[in-house]
Design goal:
Blueprint: H1 4-32, E1 37-39, H2 41-45, E2 55-61, E3 67-68, E4 73-78, E5 83-88, E6 101-110, E7 113-120, H3 130-136
Parallel strand pairs: 1-2, 5-7
Antiparallel strand pairs: 2-4, 2-6, 3-4, 4-5, 6-7
Length: about 140
């Protein structure tokens, strides 16, 4: 029915398609491990189930909430509706301060407690990350 050339071309096209699908799947699977989702304190309070994967929590550092001990920094992130307590071991960025925007990356212990592995506040005092601005409802 079909000649040998047609069958070889068809087989070649099928092999290329399978290779493309497999490559796309492997790339997406490897990127999935590096995705870090952003959530506000209000979104965390409304979670039905606590996930143990790495997330980012953003908002404003609550006034008079920063407590610094010898090797740990404790503070509260708020979106002016809800709050979450954050603990972090390490050096904080120079621009980390009360009533300033902050994004903390780490792991959620429960709906009220977050253990940060990284503090992202490397911006000038007027800048607010787009995710934080959106979560706070500002323009």
């Amino acid at each position: 029915m079909y000649g040998r050339k047609v069958k070889l071309r068809f087989l070649f096209v099928i092999i290329i398609l399978i290779t493309l699908i497999l490559t796309t799947f492997l790339i997406l699977k490897s990127l999935e491990e590096n995705v870090v989702y952003f959530q506000s304190p209000s979104e965390i309070k409304s979670l039905s189930e606590i996930d143990k994967s790495k997330i980012r929590v953003g908002g404003m550092v609550k006034k008079n909430s920063i407590s610094i001990s010898s090797n740990e920094v404790n503070f509260i992130i708020t979106d002016f509706k809800n709050e979450i307590n954050v603990t972090y071991s390490g050096a904080v960025p120079n621009l980390f301060a009360e009533e300033k925007g902050v994004v903390a990356e780490g792991f959620l212990k429960d709906r009220n407690f977050f253990s940060a592995t990284k503090i992202l506040a490397k911006h000038d005092e007027n800048y607010m990350p787009p995710e934080v601005k959106e979560a706070l409802g500002e323009k």
